Amino acid sequence: MPVLFMLSVISHNALNLHGAALWIITLVQTFAYRWIPTAKSRAVISILVFAACAIAAVLAGKDFIGHFIDMVLAYAVGIAVQIAFMNTPLYVGPISEHLNGADLSWVVGLVVTSPLYFWLASRGSA
Description:
Blueprint: H1 2-31, H2 39-60, H3 64-82, H4 94-98, H5 105-122
Keywords: Membrane, Transmembrane, Transmembrane helix
Transmembrane segments: 20-36, 43-60, 72-92, 104-121
């Protein structure tokens, strides 16, 4: 069972690494549209992404669970706050209805969630 779990984790992380490398290539090609990435450049980008993620994991590892709980709490509050401002084919929130159908949920989510997470994450280090 541990071997299967390890193989599952490796395969999922490989897909995440591949997706991040493709995102960076797409970002670069947005501004340098004539650049065609070679196998070598894709490998270098993948290695750089892996190194950056490994460094971030080591630095965040000290209090990972605490920061993760802060993130999940801020995320849940952000979703709850956005509901009243949503305008989708499935649901129109009461505030969105009063604003002639304007969907401001993403703005409200950003304005509420960002400072909330900053406060939650920094309160333990004060």
